[in-house]
Amino acid sequence: MIDWPSPAKLNLFLYITGRRPDGYHDLQTLFQFLDYGDTLNFTVRQDGEIRLLTPIAGVPDEQNLIVRAAKRLQQFSGCHLGADISINKILPMGGGLGGGSSNAATVLVALNYLWQCHISVAQLCQLGRELGADVPVFIFGHAAFAEGVGDKLQAAEPEEKWYLVAHPNVHIPTPLIFSDPELVRNTPKRSLSTLLNTPFSNDCELIARKRVPEVEQLISWLLEYAPSRLTGTGACVFAEFPSQASALNVLKQAPEWLHGFVARGVNTSPLQSVLSRQE
Length: 279
What we know:
Blueprint: E1 4-19, E2 25-45, E3 50-52, H1 65-77, E4 82-88, H2 99-114, H3 121-131, H4 135-140, E5 144-148, E6 152-155, E7 162-167, H5 174-178, H6 192-196, H7 205-211, H8 213-222, E8 228-230, E9 237-241, H9 244-252, E10 259-266, H10 270-278
Parallel strand pairs: 3-4
Antiparallel strand pairs: 1-2, 2-4, 2-5, 2-10, 5-6, 7-9, 7-10, 8-9
Helix pairs in contact: 1-2, 1-3, 2-3, 7-8
């Protein structure tokens, strides 16, 4: 049985360049994957049933992106096969690491292969977009500069650093940040080359630090050791290091309330690496 990775992502920078008539925001962000995340396993069924063998507490199956992605692929492809799906869930929900979106992408990519649907990456990205704005980048499979609502992707090659990623044990609903009247929504659009040569930041961070004391406490502690910032709309924060040893050394000094892990940023998704070995 193949272990299909469902990696975390970081937003190395995130800028809000405008608000659209439909209420969504235009962004410029840089996605990079981590060599750390959930793992999914699939057993193909002949009866067309989709069964999640490891339900997630508080998330009904019909709302779970894993189940929704599998059923959407069935519908789109006309495939009559089904699957038993299990997940080893280690990424925190609502942490800004893209866990649910990554799960959906892994389902689409893995079942497209296992069911032999032969759906193109572009079509899978379109299906993913229906499930969530961050799903396409996980299907795309490479670090990417994203614009629009995060759906216009351009491959990028940011430095592959080591990160200490920490969660403050709070959940920040994305609408809480994007509906805040103090959120900056007019950051000027810039080219990728300009952004890569400008210190990275996140327009959502100020609001998260103002509204969520645990995020403020976490970032303040990490900034004593390394450049640190929010990923996505939070609540996770990451600090960047030149080596695994230096990141682990800081994690060892962390106060008891800090829960984190050390992982490397990678420009090729672990999911893409597994798929390439199968093909």
